[in-house]
Every structure is written in C-alpha cells, then in structure tokens.
Predict the structure.
Amino acid sequence: MGTFNELIVAGPPVQRIQFKYGLCWQLEYHIGDTVKWENINRPNIANGGIVIPGLLSILPEETAQKYYAITFLDDRILAASEISAVEFQKLEQFLPSQISNP
C-alpha cells in the first residue's frame, strides 16, 4: 500500500484501518478528526464529500483481508463501514489520482 494513514476505530476489538487521503505519513486518526494536508494541494471535491477505500491493518493469520469504505465530508472523517473486495476495487479504480501525496 505504500505510505498511508490509519483510522483507529473503537472496538471491541479496536480496528486500525489503513487509508490514503491527505498528507500520508502514518498519521493516526479517529472518527470526527480532520485530515491534514500541509504542503500538498487539496483536490477540489464536489459537495465536499468523498469515500476512500481502506484495508484492515492487522489481521490474525486465519482471517481473510477486510475492506472498508471511509466517508469524509470537508476532510472530516464521518464513518467507516466494511465492504466487499469488489466494492473496494471499484472505489480504488475511480479515485482521483491527486487525493494523497505520493
């Protein structure tokens, strides 16, 4: 996944979801936090809302990968919900290329 941030979602169990949005520097966020952009250009997003794909960071060996949709409004994290692998791939495919730093 390269450089990413993590959304920490209260449990049980606590979940750490990797995502790429804003300044990607392994920053930790919680629901309600606003992502940082620093010196990178923030993309112009219609209506201020966007859904970004995410992956569960830590998996027990016997667990299949879990995929998430993370919803942002005006750069504030609103929610994270589990999605299928197909939905994850569709989200990744249609993201603007400038949503995070390289």
In short: The CA atoms of residues 23 and 37 lie 5 Å apart. Strands lie at 5-9, 15-19, 28-29, 49-56, 67-73, 76-83.
